[in-house]
Specification:
By secondary structure, the protein is an alpha+beta fold. About 55% of the residues lie in helices and about 15% in strands. Strands 1, 2, 3, 4, 5, 6 and 7 form a 7-stranded mixed sheet that branches. Strands 8-9 form a two-stranded antiparallel sheet.
Length: about 450
């Protein structure tokens, strides 16, 4: 006889049975035969069968990681700490607000004080204003981390800490370096870089129309500059102008309150909308000789600055593509279609693998380039090749990201639409891909094909 306590267990289990489902099952399966087979199983076989029949708990997906070849492992502990500090800063301070500012066509100036607290430039420039021994690797890794969240913020930082500060470092006198670089390092003074003109872009080395002429201890500047990042709110702008006397390009530190200096924000952009690009007009702009960059006596100095910063723009392409890949993978793991995440589908996995391959190739190329730059042996053509390759692969990657998101890929909510648009600026500035291609082509063939 069955014990009363066992009878109670059976009744409790029976009360949980959905008899309607049992009746439906009995239409397809001979339940008496099934129970007979089960009752004759040994304990081991029964346990195996129960294990197979038990519902499986879905396995957690792998951690999202755009560093597939573990470039981070090549960094020193200090470099890795700085990288992670910048990543946390961008995710905490920038990502929650950037879409709103991007739509408003405005730079979030509240970030300037937060960049001051981050105190990042001290890792690139020492107390004397010289670049630290691993400055290129640090600039690259931090630029990648910034662009992984937002390219506009990276551009603000690159114009200030790259183009403007490097102009003073390379072209300025010792006194000018002491006066400006420490204050710029602390973000007490914000810099801009005025080279491109409304009608002269790639041909600026030969076709610069902005002029300067000396009158005693003063220089008079006339002309226009265009696409000048940070110019609407910068304290100083490095302006490059052609000397009417010797036809050589010279550099000037032009202060914002100069009455001959005016700037208008360029509107209607579809890329880098959170960068405030300015159209500068210089009308009899008088600059003292003390604010002329004393060691910038030809366009060669300008080219030296551009060579230093071109590698940084290549890293922007890496970060933008990395962010697009990581956002796409996260979306694919959550987005359900036909009853399961779209990450389970072959075509979606193909998109993700193409994106990751691009990102990984870009990372390894730029990391090696940064090592060459820190060693002081990087050439123009090496920097140009990185810019050409990363801009093109970034363009492809963000397009794949937008494709993966389907219709939602055109919404700012998922960030990839912003990456998609901003990549068009990366493709064109710091030397268009066409000009950089010709730089590399000249180096490998021995023949210039610029005209």
């Amino acid at each position: 006889m069955m014990a009363l306590k066992d009878m109670g267990k059976v009744m409790a289990l029976a009360s949980k049975i959905d008899m309607a489902k049992v009746a439906k099952l009995s239409e397809k399966v001979d339940l008496n035969e099934l129970l007979g087979l089960v009752s004759n199983m040994d304990e081991k076989t029964l346990k195996q069968m129960m294990k197979l029949a038990a519902p499986k708990t879905p396995k957690a997906p792998p951690e999202i990681n755009g560093d597939f070849y573990d470039i981070g492992a090549l960094l020193t502990p200090r470099q890795r700490e700085i990288q992670l500090r910048v990543r946390a800063f961008m995710e905490r301070e920038v990502e929650p607000i950037i879409n709103d500012y991007w739509q408003r066509d405005e730079f979030p100036k509240e970030l300037i004080g937060k960049f001051r607290e981050l105190d990042l430039i001290k890792e690139i420039f020492d107390d004397e204003g010289n670049r630290t021994p691993d400055a290129a690797v640090l600039e690259g890794i931090t630029g990648m981390e910034m662009a992984r969240v937002d390219v506009s913020t990276t551009t603000f930082f690159g114009v200030h800490a790259g183009l403007a500060m490097c102009s003073i470092l390379v072209g300025g006198s010792e006194a000018q370096r002491r006066e400006w670089l420490p204050r710029m390092r602390r973000f007490e003074v914000i810099g801009a870089f005025g080279l491109t003109e409304p009608e002269v872009g790639s041909a600026i080395s030969q076709g610069m129309t902005t002029t300067c002429r000396r009158e005693g201890d003063t220089w008079v500047l006339n002309g226009e500059k265009y696409w000048i990042g940070n110019a609407t709110f910068s304290d100083i702008t490095i302006v490059w102008a052609r000397d009417e006397a010797d036809n050589q390009v010279k550099g000037f530190i032009v202060r914002r309150d100069n009455p001959g200096f005016s700037v208008r924000k360029i509107a209607n952009k579809i890329a880098l909308r959170a960068v405030e690009n300015g159209h500068i007009t210089l009308q009899n702009c008088r600059v003292p000789e003390s604010d002329r960059l004393q060691n910038a006596t030809s366009f060669r100095t300008t080219a030296d600055v551009l060579r230093m910063t071109r590698a940084g723009v290549a890293w922007q392409g890496v970060g933008c593509a990395m962010g697009a890949y990581e956002k796409s993978l996260a979306y694919a793991q959550k987005r359900l279609q036909f009853g399961r995440p779209i990450a389970n589908f072959q075509l979606v996995q193909n998109l993700l693998v193409q994106m990751l391959g691009n990102v990984t190739a870009m990372q390894t190329m730029c990391f090696r380039l940064a090592q060459l730059q820190d060693a002081g042996v990087m050439t123009d053509e090496q920097a140009s090749l990185a810019k050409v390759f990363t801009a093109k692969r970034c363009r492809e990657t963000v397009a794949l990201a937008r494709e993966l998101h389907g219709g939602k890929g055109i919404l700012l909510d998922h960030h990839v639409a912003r990456y998609f648009a901003d990549t068009e600026a990366i493709y064109s500035y710091e030397g268009t891909n066409e000009i950089n291609t010709l730089v590399v082509g000249r180096a490998i063939t021995g023949t210039g094909a610029f005209v």
